Amino acid sequence: MRESLWKSVLSVRQNSPLVHNITNYVVMNNTANALLAVGASPIMAHAHPEIEEMVSICGVTVINIGTLDEYWIESMYKAAAKAQELGKPWILDPVGAGASNLRNTTVAQLLKYKPTVIRGNASEIMALANAGGKTKGVDSLHQSTEAIDAAKWLNENTGTVVCISGATDVVIFGNQKILIDNGHVMMTKVTGLGCTATSLIGAFVAGQPENAFEATAAAMALLGVAGEIATAQSNGPGSLQMNLLDKLYNITEEEFNKHIKVSQENGKTVSI
Amino acid sequence: MRESLWKSVLSVRQNSPLVHNITNYVVMNNTANALLAVGASPIMAHAHPEIEEMVSICGVTVINIGTLDEYWIESMYKAAAKAQELGKPWILDPVGAGASNLRNTTVAQLLKYKPTVIRGNASEIMALANAGGKTKGVDSLHQSTEAIDAAKWLNENTGTVVCISGATDVVIFGNQKILIDNGHVMMTKVTGLGCTATSLIGAFVAGQPENAFEATAAAMALLGVAGEIATAQSNGPGSLQMNLLDKLYNITEEEFNKHIKVSQENGKTVSI
Amino acid sequence: MRESLWKSVLSVRQNSPLVHNITNYVVMNNTANALLAVGASPIMAHAHPEIEEMVSICGVTVINIGTLDEYWIESMYKAAAKAQELGKPWILDPVGAGASNLRNTTVAQLLKYKPTVIRGNASEIMALANAGGKTKGVDSLHQSTEAIDAAKWLNENTGTVVCISGATDVVIFGNQKILIDNGHVMMTKVTGLGCTATSLIGAFVAGQPENAFEATAAAMALLGVAGEIATAQSNGPGSLQMNLLDKLYNITEEEFNKHIKVSQENGKTVSI
Fold first, then answer.
1. Residues that bind ATP, according to the entry (chains A, B, C) (predicted)?
2. Which of A137, A251, C147, C191 could staple A32 via S-S, CB 3.0–4.6 A?
3. Band of the pLDDT at C2, cuts 50, 70, 90?
4. Is A192 labelled a binding residue?
5. Tell me: the pLDDT tens digits for C181-228?
6. How far apart (Å, rounded) are the C-alpha atoms in residues C22 and B34?
């Protein structure tokens, strides 16, 4: 699997997919920079009169509810509906799901437009699936493994690939599962790396929407490996934020293969 | 006092308070990163339908008027009113007070909800108290000492702790005063470090709302000391922004005590 | 010409012009930091009730349509109209012009308020002038030289200085042209450096509105030279973003003169 994951990295660099983001104010700069670093081309746009054109010209739309309000929620609905209508991939990041009624009703409505991939921490995935669990803001309270039942429920009911990010990232589709053990705990001290993960998934899925499951794993593996290497070069979260962008930009196949820790489960068969 | 200030730093690291921010677009990323670096947990949320829930679940709300507009002003009023109703601490950063009529009427209204702490530069504090002084944008025109009368007026009329930041930071409550002589002039070349100061005050006050006076001094001392150390490692404001986050994250008690320059005045008694 | 360009750099440092920005969410932090680094004083403000006051108290207004929506478009119209009424300089950055009907109608309306300077990539300048060319998001598809006809048309019809940025930046006014061959391709991997260029043009024009042509060239030359030096010190776009701010802050006349590659054409006369 390592080879095909690295091929996804190269594919983004070569094809420079156009990634449309409706995301939160906190992370717009980092997200755009991470997309540029991996070779993608970011567009941030949310105005109702142009939202459908933006969905149409881009390879994928990423919807992140981090700093939602009534206007932006309407933008998200319009974009998701248009993507569904056109058969284009779109990705959902349910930031802070469970923290307010507004977030819960918004993600419930967005689920109806059947996202191609959902990425969240365990609390968010559980809130999404009404599998209980109140979120402590945007931080995770649960181990990612506890949310696997919720992810399976989401996959069965919407057909979406689900990625539960945490110390171990778990990507689920049907009875297949990919586990990624990369990353470093200091990454939780840089704001918005979850949001960055979701945008990178968008870039990777744009190039291979027919295999969103593996594209999602490739994006998560790249971010985890790059984050791990960058952390080793950093004195704290400030330099990590910077070094991570550098490493997303200049990571080599050798580095990727040296660090990646990934395993796949297909039903009861486990392969590495 | 040094010991109790350092205890506040440790307390934030250990208790990871949830800090709700209604702040400006320019600084959201930095503010969130600074809060994470000191060990707090940031939430940025402004939507009217969820604003009261956010105030309720968080330990403190920070309101910063930097890029206000009609919708956000209403969010600020709702949040401040809810915090007052619940007896929760909330912090006001009157960015650019005095620069427009809109800002003046907004902060006048916000004062009615009795913030726990106000932090601004001398111009902003003076504008707030109608003590004269026209602001030159968000930069300070006045020495912080000139605004002390304004700060005393604010304290007497609203019961709030007031922090005038500048070359010397002055924290005022009743007839007590703490002076902090840390920081470096290069910090004025990094956007939003005043806003960062205000958010850190929020994190510190969340853990000891009964002693917001000393919590405010601890936050200002931490930022000043970390900024001073970070400046010595930096070639300019770009690297300072990065090194500051690293230092907020990894500062030790030894470093803190070595650099801190703080004095306290209680009426006419001065102690160090 | 080198000497007068460097004089512009010094003038900004000495006079610290107040630069009002109505810009996009992605770049607000970087733009503010770049303005501070060169010695200017940034204000970000968009609220309708204060927009005219902000135009009045600032030396220049910079309007960037990157993340426009209905409210912000109205802010832009109000600001541009006020600047025109007061005879104050204002700068237009038509981000993504050509990518949606909304952007095209917005920039068409803004042109009526006769911007002092327009800066965009070749696609954007061409879209602006209806000279054809569909934009691929906010990236350039065209060599800057291809947009020169469009720039001339804009100059003739609105009297504005036009800067087409790209591998070679071209600044056009009447039959005069300044070509700047600085910068580095890695700068296209840092989000918003085009927007930063536009804000720096604002800072430079504020100090010499009577010579916006040369002020624009000075801002572009400074960014290009600083970017070139910063790239040589960087491992990727993350460190470039940081080192660029440092270099904008501490660049010396010697460095500027050593690296600058600028030439001027006046009709058929070329000078260096």
1. 119, 165
2. C191
3. confident
4. yes
5. 999 999 999 999 999 999 999 999 998 999 999 999 999 999 999 999
6. 26
C132 touches chain A (CB under 8 A): no
Can you tell me whether residue C159 is helix, strand or coil? coil
Chain C CB within 8 Å of residue B33 CB:
no
Contact between C33 and B67 using a beta-carbon 8 Å cutoff: no
Distances (CA, A) of C271 to C175, C213, C238: 14, 16, 37
Average pLDDT of span C17-41: 98
- DSSP letter string, C25-43: TTTHHHHHHHHHHHT-EEE
- Report CB contact under 8 Å: A70, B54: no
Q: How far is CA C192 from CA A30, A217, B140, C96, C237, in A?
A: 11, 29, 28, 12, 12
pLDDT band at A266 (very low <50, low <70, confident <90, very high): confident
Q: What is the pLDDT of residue C145?
A: 60
Q: What's the whole-model pTM score?
A: 0.95
8 Å CB contact of A241 and B245: yes
Q: What is the pLDDT of residue A24?
A: 97
Chain A residues inside the 8 Å CB shell of C246? none
Are C249 and B237 an interchain contact pair (Cβ–Cβ within 8 Å)? yes
Which residues on chain C are in Cβ contact (under 8 Å) with A37?
189, 236-238
Whether chain C has a CB inside 8 Å of the CB on A117: the answer is no
* Predicted confidence (pLDDT) per residue in B88-115, tens digit: 999 999 999 999 999 999 999 999 999 9
Interface test with B, best of C44, C60, C223, C243 (most B CBs within 10 A): C44
CB count, 10 Å around CB of B208? 19
* Whole-number Å distance between alpha carbons of B163 and B178: 9
Is B207 annotated in a binding site? The answer is no
For C120, the token pair is 């965009």
The nearest CA of chain B is from the CA of A39 a distance in Å of: 23
Q: Determine whether the interchain pair B136/C45 forms a contact, defined as Cβ–Cβ distance below 8 Å.
A: no
pLDDT tens profile A61-80: 999 999 999 999 999 999 99
Question: DSSP labels for A55-119?
Answer: HHHSSEEEEE-TT--HHHHHHHHHHHHHHHHHT--EEEE-TTTTS-HHHHHHHHHHHTT--SEEE
Report residue A172: phi and psi, to 5°. Answer: -125, 135
In chain C, the residue whose alpha carbon lies closest to the alpha carbon of A29 is C26
Q: Are A253 and A37 in contact (CB under 8 A)?
A: no
Confidence of residue B2 (pLDDT cuts 50, 70, 90): confident
Report the distance separating Cα C194 and Cα C180, nearest Å.
15
What is the Cα–Cα distance from C106 to A234, expressed in whole angstroms? 44
